[in-house]
Design a protein that fits this description.
Blueprint: H1 11-34, H2 39-87, H3 92-97
Helix pairs in contact: 1-2
Length: 98
């Protein structure tokens, strides 16, 4: 029976992802804050940026959940095949013929 090893992110990858997210969000906030436009335009850009961040988290969660579900159904299918093969006796029909 072949098992798929669980993938786990390293601490360095997690830190790099956090730093990249903080840098991008900080750049967006600074860019909106110093933009030479009226307050309404600045507020619209800030709300749009906030919506982009929250929708990104939602999309990432949906992708992760879909991958976990695909892995679970694949393991269930493999377990069913393994059970069928374990219960199958290839010599069962040959014993009845003789």
């Amino acid at each position: 029976m072949s098992t798929v090893p669980a993938t786990k992110s390293t601490a360095a990858y997690f830190a790099q992802s956090g730093i990249a997210f903080a840098t991008a969000l900080g750049s967006l906030i600074i860019g909106v804050a110093v933009l030479p436009v009226d307050g309404w335009i600045r507020a619209f850009l800030a709300v749009s940026g906030l919506f982009l961040v929250t929708s990104t988290f939602t999309l990432a969660k949906c992708v992760r959940d879909a991958q976990e579900n695909a892995g679970l159904s694949s393991r269930l299918d493999q377990a069913r095949v393994d059970r069928i093969l374990a219960e199958h006796d290839p010599f069962k029909d040959l014993n009845n013929v003789a």
